[in-house]
Every structure is written in structure tokens, then in C-alpha cells.
Design goal:
Strand order of the largest sheet of chain B: 1-10-7-4-2-3
Number of helices of chain B: 35
CATH superfamily of chain A: NagB/RpiA/CoA transferase-like
CATH architecture of the domain at 6-308 in chain B: 3-Layer(aba) Sandwich
CATH architecture of chain A: 3-Layer(aba) Sandwich
Distance between the termini of chain B: 47 Å
Shape of chain A: globular
Largest interface: A-B, 55 and 72 residues
Oligomer: heterodimer
Largest sheet of chain B: 6 strands, parallel
Largest sheet of chain A: 6 strands, parallel
CATH topology of chain A: Rossmann fold
Structural class of chain B: alpha/beta
CATH class of chain A: Alpha Beta
Strand content of chain A: 25-35%
Radius of gyration of chain B: 28 Å
Structural class of chain A: alpha/beta
CATH class of the domain at 6-308 in chain B: Alpha Beta
Strand content of chain B: 5-15%
Helix content of chain A: 25-40%
Number of strands of chain A: 12
Chain lengths: ~170, ~725
């Protein structure tokens, strides 16, 4: 079992790495998730259910969106299955609720993550991914920071995907 | 190559340097600096590279079984696998899938393999609208140009050029200018095209045989959209992309971004197991719900052979299949930094490893069109995350290309070119490959040979017949060779020496730069070492650099016969010229028996490495010449010396002798043996050399030193200050 102290250390490492990609990282208790999301989101918002006890989406968030609602959304909220402290990466698993398009077609992606799901390094993440993907044949994205490109002569954050990413780590 | 074709080659290189050189240089050098910084953050970079290489070696070994396994697994997942024997086969299959889907538009994420088979042209001819969604690829599609870099395809285009292109093609309400504006414009425009696409095509950086997962390493998010939106997904991939297990991806994921563009990790590592369990998105039906597990999805994996299985059976090309196409070998290459992939590239691929790919896929003739851009400097070997011996692949392909050349007229110089090549490399290569014969002759007839070489008629003749550029001063031969000088010395060897050394009299030291040889002898003797300088054959570096492997092997065999008695008597061999040491400890493994190679590898040392070792073991450093007052030394280490990890010894000794040492980040001086002498490459060589001399000038040095003959020649030709070998600075006065 992971002790609270090492969870704190992992969170600090994750936060530091993610912030190097301009990702906003906050650590909150489950009941505070709703208001934290409200303070971050802008414009029409779509999302997938959180499935974290005592944490819920603001009522304004559309789950099971239509393609028109997806297109109009400025913010997308999804959960991450895992996070990698060394890299500040989150693992976004494609789900029936549309996690993949919802995390992609937006300007701001808000990721909700359980603190206990932060692992230290890439090796540990791939041990987990190996078992999971072989068994389920699902798909997942290791996402680190917003989408980006340097193809237009300088680094720009926000290419085809999100321009901004925020992570809410739930204790 | 005729004089005319050398001239047109030179013109072409000059044109590309003028139009694309600046953008290519800035970008590749930025990536290269990023790589050094990013890999330095890894706790165990070398171990990670070793694991990555082992995984690839194992995967290529069991490739036929992995192909079967991946076929079964993808079909079990609900997809289809098509094994295409060549490009035409793959294109026909893909066109058939598009026809079955009645597809009007196919959106693509970046894939070099799709460039290799030229799928865009094929589909366009069948009436399918193909849209590149990677921003760099889209720019090239609009400009109708070919990629100049395997990872950043539009690296040769500046922001200003892209802005002009967009403003001209789309005539936006407000003119686009900044990178941000250009990116947002492309995002919006391509976003609309993606929404109405019928088929999405991706490549694959890796495919895992245990789950049928396709790993895509990207940053823009366009690959995700290409897979998520349309119902039909086609992935094209070379068969070599398969690895056994998902866990095998980990070292590659940690290495690929760092090695290529200097990013610790790219924004998205997509692990798609298609057909993906994710709802499709129908933007045309605005009320359609985004839910479900994508039961309507269709997936086709097109695995492409196109010469790869034959490469697998080819001992010398096989390692090419380990390549993960990170672009490190391009970015770290001084020649590539100067000209980019439009010169240093073939039909599809570019950079050092392209020689292997192009030879295996498009044929040796294609590889031979650009292969001489590789000078064997070896800087790519340590940069390559899977440790491919890229210079060797280039040497082998050059050798094969030589044997296909027309040998007419070359009998004219047979006397000057007594090589062991069964087939005829062209005259220019034979001249440089047989440098040893020239050097002997030049020395024997000096100073006449030097006066002759300095005359205009000889200069013109050499340029016309052999492509030796007239603007490059020819080497000046010494009438008394290093060995002759040593033989004539009347010095009594120390009675009880601490160590016994043979200095290998490389061709340059022996016939031209005798003074540095003398300095080496003085230094070693002052530090209590018994020194011998025996007669010895050239190491074989010169013929090897021209792809003349048989000649190089016969030289290596001769050197082994000459030096083995000394090895057996406990002598260490000290080498002044780093490129020759690199032969002894590197290429000799491929040219000599294992036991002979081990003698060389275990007992050969670079001169300054050896001096450092003596000092570290108690020899008196005060015997070396120290700085008098504040003295700044600009030090340029030789490319192969750095790859061998031996730069540090010269650097440290200089510092310990009281000099303030300034170094530079130029990977190679651009001279690289014969490269800078060849008329077709002269201007490119000078372009690279000026990067070096600019940094040397910036250091405002009192003294300029280097270790390699080529580096010293290049600096001497381009800098006002005369450079010297490190040993000439540190050696005690005669």
C-alpha cells in the first residue's frame, strides 16, 4: 500500500513535470471537485461521468453530447486512468462515453484524476498498460500538456487538439 | 562522375544552401542541442538505449512469427491485415478499401511509409481527395514539395515563406503573419476537412504483436482525429514496426522524442487498438449521440514488405530495420545541418540512415545519388537510440555502388591507384582511396611535388580529371618522413622504462605533419616512456572512406602483421590521428579476425588519452609546457574522437597545464578527409567550416588547437590564425 507521504511526493513530482508544459494542476478533496471545475471551465462544456465517490460534474456540463454539442464545446472534461509523475503525463482511456473525442475536440481539456493513480515512472505505467490493453483490447492516450506544433516556424500550443490543459487531482 | 556532373552537383548544393540552408540549420541545430539536454536528464540513458536495441534485434530476428501473430490478433480484434509485397500492391489494396467505402476524402496523419509507397498520387488518380493533416505535411502538400526531414517535413521552410504561401493560396481577410495565426488558420481549415472525411489513414511508430496495438508518437492531435472521426481506419506500416509486447514500448517512448526533436515526450503517445472501442463522430448528423463502443468501425492494417524482408537477410543492411525514425542521425550530422534532406536524401528518406532505407527499398543506384554526403564522422552512432552503425551501412552501400560504376578510362591512373577493388570505383574515389601511394610519392619527391601541386596547370588538371577543388590548398609533403626522422635519431632508449610505446605513424603524420610526430615522441620520452616508430602501412581509413572495403581490408591485414609483434612484446600502440584510432578500435572488428581485432582494441590509445593516463599514474605533468600568463585556447575535438569519448583527455590536460579552454558545438569540421577537397562538395564543406571558425573567433583565442588532420586543414584554410595539434602546444621544447 502506498503511504500518504509517498503519495504527496508523487503528486509534487507530477505537478512539477506537468507545469513545465503549462498545465494547471490542483489537488482537492472529492466534494470540492464541482466548484473547482466551475472555476476553470469556459464556454459550453461537455464531459464524461467522473465515477469518483463524492465527486461530481457541475450541472451545466453536458454528458452524452450530440456531435453538434461536441463541436460547439469549448471545454471538455474527462477522467484519467493513470498519471506518470516523471513526465507529467495522464493516461486517457477511450470509453463508450466518448472520452476520446471529448478530450480532443475542445480548447480546454480538464482532466480529473485520483491521486492514488499517480505512478512514478514510465516502466510502472507500461506494466499496467500491458496487462490492461492485452486483456481489454482498449485504446489509451498518454497525453502530456496541450497539443502543440512547431511546423509554422515557432512553437505554438494548441494545434489540432486542446490549447490548454488543467488537471484536478482528487485526494 | 564527370567534371560536368560534379559542377551541376555543386550548383545544386549551392542553390539548396542559399534557399533552404538557413532554416534547416537553425532547426536541426536546435533539435540537436535539445537532444543533448533532454537525454542528460535520463538516469540511465545508455542502458535504455541498450534495451531498445535488444528489443529491435530480437523483433527482427523473429519477424516472420511476429507478422503471423499480429495478423491473428488484429483479426481477433475485428480488423483486417493485408501483407503487401511492394508499393503497387499496397496502393491497390488501399484504393480498393476506399472504393468499397465509396470514399470521397481520406485524411492522413504523418507517415513516411505512406510517402514511400506514394499513396497520395495513387488515390488522387482514383478520384479520392487526400488531405494531409499534419501541419508540416499540409504545407508541403500545398506547396507541392517533398519532405526535407523525416520528422519535421517542412523544416526547410521559414515562417515567412509559409505565411506567403497561405496568404497567396487562401487570400484570408487579414493577412496571416505569426506562427500562432498560421497554426490557428490551419487548425480551422483542416478541422472542416476532417469532419467530412470518410477514411482516416495513419502510419505506425510501433505495433505490438500481443494486443494489435498501434503506437503513434505525435504532438498535434491530428492522428487522434484521423482515427476517431471516420468509421474506417487504414494504418500503413513497414513490417519492421512490430515489437512483441506492449511493455516493449517503454524504452522507445522514453527515447524517441528526446533523440529526435529534444522533447522529453511528445504531447500524445496514442496506443490505439483498432478498430477502437470508441464512438465514431458523425458531424454531418448534428443530432447523433457520441456514445457506444464503435461497432460500426472498420480497420485495415497494411503491412508493407517492399524490400524489407530482403534487407533482413542482408547482413549489412539488416540493422537499418532497427531504425525508429527519430531523426537523430539527421540532426546531429554537420552535412545534414548544412543542406537538409533535399540534398542529403533519396526518393523518400533523408539523413544518415536513409542510405540503408533507400538501398533496401529503392535500390543501390538511388542510395548512391546522395550517399557520399556521409563522411563517416560517426557522430550519429552515439545519437542513434538503437545504436545502429550508420557509417558502416554507408560504407557498404558506397562499396556496392562503386562496383556498379563504369570503369572506362580509369586504367590511366592504375599506377597511382594500386587498390584491391575488383570492380572499379570512379577515379575521384580511387585517387582519395589510394592516398597512401600519393603521400609516399609526394614525400619522396618533395619539395618538387609541393611546387608542382601549387602550380595552376596541375591544379586545373586535378580538378578536371579527379574533381579536386582548385580553391583548396593541397597538402604539403615533407621530404623526410616521420619514420625516417626517427630512424636517423641517435637517442639511447631509457634503460628501465615505465612503459613501452609504439607510435603508429599515420599517413598524415608520417608524410606531412612530421612536427606533431616529433612533439609526440618528445612528450612521451619526457614522461619516462620508451618510444618506437616502426614502418607501418596506412590504416585503411582512406580507402574505406571511399567505400573500397577490399583495399581497406588488405591495409588492415598489413598493419596487423606489422604491429602484432609489438603487441605481443607488451608495447602499447599510441595513435595520433583519431580517425585511425577509430579504425583500430572500431572498423577493424569488421575487417580482421576477432582475436586480432581484440589486440588492437585492448592496446591502442589516442595520444592525449595516453599522456593523461601517464600523468594520472604519477608521471610529472610539469614536464609538459604550461601556459605563460592568461592564455585562451580554442579547442576543437575531432568528430570520431568525440564519439570514442576521448575529447575529455585533451581538454583536461590543456586545463591542467593552465590554459583557459573554449570549445564549440560544431559536430564535425566539414573537411572530413577527402570531402572538403572534392569540387562538388567544396562550398558545402566551407559552409560547415565557417560555423566552426565563427565560434572559434567568438572565443577570441590566443591559440587554436585541434586533434585531427582534417580539422587542422579546414581551420587553417578558413581562419586567419594558424592552428596546431594539441601535442605541439603541450610538448616540452626540443
Amino acid at each position: 500500500m502506498v503511504s500518504q507521504r509517498s503519495e504527496q511526493a508523487l503528486f509534487d513530482r507530477f505537478k512539477q513535470a506537468a507545469e513545465s508544459y503549462n498545465v494547471d494542476v490542483q489537488r482537492v478533496k472529492p466534494p470540492a471537485v464541482t466548484e473547482t471545475i466551475e472555476s476553470l471551465l469556459s464556454g459550453p462544456t461537455v464531459g464524461t461521468p467522473l465515477e469518483i465517490p463524492d465527486a461530481s460534474l457541475p450541472e451545466s456540463v453536458t454528458t452524452k453530447p450530440t456531435s453538434a454539442e461536441l463541436e460547439a464545446a469549448e471545454t471538455g472534461i474527462t477522467t484519467a486512468s493513470l498519471a506518470i509523475a516523471d513526465y507529467g503525463s495522464v493516461v486517457l482511456r477511450a470509453t463508450d462515453e466518448g472520452s476520446e473525442p471529448i478530450s480532443l475536440f475542445n480548447e480546454l481539456h480538464i482532466v480529473v484524476l485520483r491521486e492514488s493513480d499517480i505512478v512514478p515512472d514510465m516502466s510502472t505505467a507500461f506494466e499496467w498498460l500491458g496487462d490492461e490493453l492485452r486483456e481489454s483490447r482498449d485504446s489509451a492516450i498518454l497525453a502530456t500538456g496541450p497539443s502543440a506544433t512547431a511546423d509554422m516556424g515557432a512553437l505554438v500550443q494548441g494545434a489540432h487538439g486542446p490549447k490548454q490543459v488543467a488537471v484536478i487531482v482528487v485526494t | 562522375m564527370s567534371e560536368t556532373s560534379r559542377q551541376s552537383r555543386a550548383e545544386r548544393i549551392k542553390h539548396i544552401m542559399n534557399t533552404e540552408g538557413q532554416a534547416v540549420r537553425t532547426n536541426t541545430r536546435g533539435f540537436n542541442a535539445g537532444r543533448y539536454e533532454s537525454v542528460s536528464k535520463l538516469e540511465d540513458y545508455e542502458a535504455l538505449k541498450d534495451r531498445a536495441r535488444a528489443i529491435k534485434a530480437d523483433a527482427i530476428q523473429q519477424l516472420p512469427e511476429l507478422i503471423d501473430q499480429v495478423t491473428d490478433v488484429v483479426e481477433e480484434n475485428g480488423g483486417t491485415v493485408y501483407l503487401a509485397s511492394d508499393a503497387a500492391d499496397a496502393n491497390q489494396y488501399i484504393a480498393r478499401v476506399c472504393a468499397d467505402q465509396q470514399a470521397d476524402r481520406l485524411i492522413k496523419s504523418k507517415s513516411m511509409t505512406s510517402e514511400e509507397i506514394e499513396i497520395n498520387d495513387h488515390l488522387e488518380r482514383k478520384g479520392v481527395d487526400v488531405v494531409e493533416t499534419d501541419l508540416g505535411e499540409w504545407v508541403l502538400q500545398l506547396a507541392e514539395e517533398a519532405p526535407s526531414h523525416i520528422v519535421a517535413p517542412a523544416i526547410h521552410k521559414s515562417r515567412e515563406e509559409i505565411a506567403r504561401l497561405f496568404n497567396h493560396q487562401f487570400d484570408p481577410e487579414t493577412e496571416l503573419e505569426s506562427a500562432e495565426e498560421l497554426t490557428m488558420f490551419a487548425r480551422e481549415r483542416l478541422g472542416e476537412l476532417i469532419q467530412e472525411a470518410d477514411v482516416g489513414m495513419t502510419g505506425a511508430n510501433f505495433i505490438t504483436a500481443d494486443s494489435g496495438t498501434i503506437a503513434l508518437v505525435t504532438s498535434e492531435g491530428n492522428a487522434r482525429k484521423s482515427v476517431t472521426v471516420p468509421e474506417t481506419h487504414i494504418a500503413v506500416a513497414g513490417v519492421e514496426k512490430i515489437v512483441p509486447r506492449i511493455e516493449d514500448l517503454q524504452p522507445f517512448i522514453e527515447l524517441i522524442g528526446r533523440s529526435g526533436t529534444g522533447q522529453d515526450i511528445t504531447s500524445y503517445i496514442s496506443l490505439f487498438t483498432p478498430p477502437i472501442n470508441s464512438p465514431t463522430v458523425d458531424f454531418e448528423d448534428v443530432d447523433s449521440l457520441i456514445e457506444g463502443s464503435g461497432e460500426d468501425r472498420e480497420f485495415h492494417l497494411v503491412l508493407i514488405d517492399n524490400g524489407r524482408m530482403a534487407m533482413r537477410d542482408d547482413e549489412d543492411l539488416r540493422e537499418t530495420l532497427y531504425c525508429i525514425r527519430c531523426s537523430a542521425c539527421s540532426n546531429t550530422c554537420a552535412n545534414f545541418q548544412s543542406v537538409g534532406g533535399h540534398v542529403f536524401g533519396g526518393e523518400t528518406y533523408s539523413g544518415g540512415i536513409a542510405t540503408g532505407w533507400e538501398a533496401g527499398i529503392h535500390g543501390v543506384e538511388t542510395a548512391a545519388t546522395f550517399n557520399d554526403q556521409c563522411t563517416g564522422c560517426s557522430r550519429c552512432v552515439e545519437a542513434c537510440p538503437v545504436g545502429i552503425d550508420i557509417p558502416w551501412i554507408n560504407t557498404v552501400v558506397r562499396n556496392r555502388a562503386n562496383s556498379q560504376k563504369d570503369v572506362n578510362m580509369e586504367f590511366l591512373v592504375d599506377g597511382l591507384t594500386p587498390d584491391s577493388e575488383e570492380h572499379g570505383p570512379e577515379l575521384q574515389k580511387r585517387l582519395f582511396g589510394n592516398f597512401e601511394t600519393l603521400a609516399k610519392l609526394g614525400s619522396a619527391t618533395a619539395p618538387l611535388s609541393n611546387w608542382m601541386a601549387d602550380t595552376a596547370p596541375i591544379g586545373r588538371l586535378l580538378e578536371r580529371v579527379a574533381g579536386v577543388d582548385r580553391r583548396r590548398p593541397l597538402p604539403s609533403f615533407s621530404r623526410t618522413s616521420f619514420v625516417e626522422w626517427f630512424d636517423a635519431r641517435e637517442t639511447v632508449p631509457p634503460a628501465d622504462p615505465d612503459r613501452k610505446v609504439v607510435i603508429y605513424p599515420d599517413l598524415y603524420t608520417n608524410y606531412m605533419d612530421v612536427e606533431r610526430g616529433k612533439a609526440a615522441v618528445r612528450t612521451l620520452e619526457a614522461l619516462g616512456v620508451e618510444v618506437l616508430v616502426p614502418h607501418a602501412t596506412g590504416s585503411g581509413r582512406a580507402p574505406l572512406s571511399q567505400g573500397m572495403i577490399d583495399t581497406a581490408r588488405s591495409k588492415a591485414t598489413a598493419v596487423a602483421a606489422e604491429l602484432t609483434p609489438y603487441f605481443e612484446q607488451g608495447y602499447d600502440v599510441v595513435v595520433i590521428e583519431p580517425s585511425d584510432l577509430a579504425m583500430f578500435t572500431g572498423e577493424y572488428e569488421r575487417l580482421l579476425s576477432e582475436s586480432t581485432f581484440e589486440l588492437f582494441a585492448d592496446n591502442s590509445y589516442e595520444l592525449l588519452e595516453y599522456v593523461y593516463g601517464l600523468v594520472a599514474n604519477g608521471a610529472d605533468i610539469d614536464r609538459l609546457r604550461h601556459a605563460e600568463g592568461e592564455t585562451t585556447v580554442a579547442y576543437h575535438s575531432h568528430c570520431q574522437q568525440r564519439t570514442m569519448g576521448l575529447e575529455v583527455y585533451s581538454h583536461t590536460l590543456l586545463e591542467r597545464c593552465g590554459y583557459d579552454v573554449e570549445t564549440n558545438d560544431v559536430e564535425c569540421c566539414g573537411m572530413a578527409g577527402s570531402f572538403g577537397y572534392k569540387s562538388q562538395f567544396y562550398e558545402q564543406s566551407v559552409d560547415i567550416g565557417e560555423q566552426l571558425t565563427e565560434q572559434i573567433r567568438d572565443a577570441e583565442p590566443d591559440i587554436v588547437v585541434a586533434n585531427g588532420t582534417s580539422c587542422l586543414d579546414q581551420i587553417d584554410d578558413l581562419l586567419e590564425q594558424r592552428p596546431q595539434h594539441v601535442i605541439e602546444l603541450l610538448a616540452p621544447a626540443p
